[in-house]
Design a protein that fits this description.
Shape: globular
Largest sheet: 10 strands, mixed
CATH architecture of the largest domain: 3-Layer(aba) Sandwich
CATH superfamily of the largest domain: Isopropylmalate Dehydrogenase
Number of strands: 12
Order of helices and strands: EHEHHEHEEEEHEHEHEHEEHHH
Helix content: 40-55%
Distance between the termini: 18 Å
Strand order of the largest sheet: 2-1-3-12-11-4-5-10-8-9
Strand content: 15-25%
Bound molecules: 1,4-dihydronicotinamide adenine dinucleotide, magnesium ion
Radius of gyration: 20 Å
Number of helices: 11
């Protein structure tokens, strides 16, 4: 079976970590074909556009994209391309696993294995009704939460738990204070949870959740929450397991899904061949799960784990002196 995916090589360290990732995917025998398309600075230099229509068309056609980080040029008129992609394809679920790996300089190296499912389209970040009064003294913002938006994200989280054999979903909210918005989210979450009797559902207020995550991260399995809370919590979770070099993320909608590393284009180390490819590789593993090839995803994750454990090809961010390509070759040698 051949599947074609859209591939965005991106900016800065993007092409280096993408080449490394595709090398490993090929060694894995994933049978993927790639259509290379541009976005970000690379696209802007070539076409004058940050997000060319041809790129949108390719993602719509293949429904799957693997994407390296993009540099958003600083200056007027440029909004984030990542946000534009999320909006265009209505990628409502931001899915970020945080898993302990060896030799990652993490404070919680052992037992973390959780996934944050963040609602990606609503709430404070939707930017509705942003206003600053004329005298600059008062700023307002509309925070809108809908039944539809809440239902689909909570359903996504429970379906993910069922599909991946996870046992527990924690609904994170602040319904005690944000009675209308967070209240609606919690109410809908309870209704959805009732349809999944085999999955344990518990509720946690967001501030307590942050404390619990730091004190006992191993108690968490799947976390589902609204946009702003999810943004903060998912970074906290990335920090628990050793930071940006190991944090992948997926943006998933009904018609398309984009898999990526959480980190940016790292201009400070671009072109040096020392970027850690693990985050994008773990994003590729999420993609394989999404393509219903879990056995390949597991083999990829195990090869990454074994290579980190061997510690002889680690990149400088992990305390080693290895290169992106050397690291990738060591992983590729283990996926067969
Ligand atoms: P960054 O994540 O690119 O870099 C932060 C620090 O982490 C730097 O010191 C960098 O060298 C290091 N780092 C990041 N990824 C690494 C890796 N794989 N291996 C080793 N070290 C790594 O964040 P920054 O500097 O704030 O942003 C740079 C550019 O990236 C900006 O143009 C920003 O807009 C863009 N960006 C793009 C994202 C995306 O496309 N998803 C996400 C975040 C930022
Ligand atoms: Mg964030």
């Amino acid at each position: 079976m051949t599947t074609t995916i859209a591939v965005i090589r991106g900016d800065g360290i993007g092409p280096e970590i993408m080449d490394a990732t595709l090398h490993v995917l090929d060694a894995l025998g994933a049978g993927l074909q790639y259509e290379f398309v541009d976005a970000g600075l690379a696209a802007h230099e070539r076409t004058g556009e940050l997000l060319p229509q041809a790129t949108l068309d390719a993602i719509a056609r293949h429904r799957i994209a693997l994407k390296s980080p993009l540099t958003t040029p600083v200056g007027e008129g440029f909004s984030s391309i990542n946000v534009a992609l999320r909006r265009h394809f209505d990628l409502y679920a931001n899915v970020r696993p945080a898993v302990s790996f060896p030799n990652t300089r993490s404070r919680f190296a052992e037992n973390v294995d959780l996934i944050t499912v963040r609602e990606n389209t609503e709430g404070a970040y939707a930017g509705e009704g942003q206003q600053v009064s004329e005298d600059g003294a008062t700023a307002t913002l509309v925070q809108k939460i809908t039944r539809r938006g809440s239902e689909r994200i909570v359903r996504y989280a429970f379906d993910l738990a069922v599909r991946t054999g996870r046992k527990k979903v924690t609904v994170v909210h602040k319904a005690n204070i944000l009675k209308s918005t967070s209240g609606l989210f919690l109410k809908v979450a309870r209704e959805v949870a009732a349809h999944y009797p085999a999955i344990q559902c518990n509720e946690l207020i967001v501030d307590n959740c942050c404390m619990q995550l730091v004190m006992r991260p191993e108690q968490f399995d799947v976390i589902v929450t609204t946009n702003l809370f999810g943004d903060i919590i998912s970074d906290l979770c990335a920090g628990l397991v050793g930071g940006l070099g190991l944090a992948p993320g997926a943006n998933i909608g009904a018609d398309a899904a984009i898999f990526e590393a959480v980190h940016g284009s790292a201009p400070d180390i671009a072109g040096k061949g020392i970027a850690n490819p693990c985050a994008l590789l773990l994003g590729a593993a999420q993609m394989l799960d999404h393509l219903q090839r879990p056995e390949l995803a597991t083999r990829l994750r195990e090869a990454i784990r074994a290579t980190l454990a061997a510690a002889d090809t680690l990149t400088p961010d992990l305390g080693g002196s290895g290169s992106t390509q050397g690291f990738a070759r060591a992983i590729a040698a283990r996926v067969g």
